[in-house]
Amino acid sequence: MSLPTVDLSQFGADRVRAAVQAAVEHASAGALPSKALLHHGAEATLRSEDPEASTYFVSILELAYLVASADGLADEERHTLADLLERLTGKAVEHEALDLHFRDLAEAVEMLGRRERLRRAAEDFGDSTRQHEALGFAAVVALADGRLAEPENAALSELGGHFGFSPDETANVVGAIVERVRAELGAKS
Asked: Taking the model in full, what pTM does it have?
């Protein structure tokens, strides 16, 4: 089973971003991280508290960035991604800090390569539920620009492989996320 190439651009950028945010807010446990979990992780990172929550948050952000930027990330896309994540964390992390973090990640990718960064960040997720959340979150963030293209799908497949998921399991996780976003778009028609 292969991953779907998706184009939701006909709905417009604002509607797609709103649907992605709603998908995270309305997600069932284990499919995506809850907004509360993201907020707690962001707070833990800022306050240097709860190392487990902080590692989860930093690593899930890195995985989302690595997948979303697999097809290139223009300044506007990085800005949009930072805005989305600022809202998903309940503004626990400011837009400017996220934008700077993504620039730092871009430099790290230049030095170590995307595959190595993806492998290293994936190692922070040992629990199956957290792995599913991380894969789903990477997929939903990659879809925030309205498209899920082949380079992003390749990165999602690689991430699923790092988690020990079969191609079918990876496709099921990503497919469920795509359907969740489509459902949110349908609810706004």
From this structure: 0.92
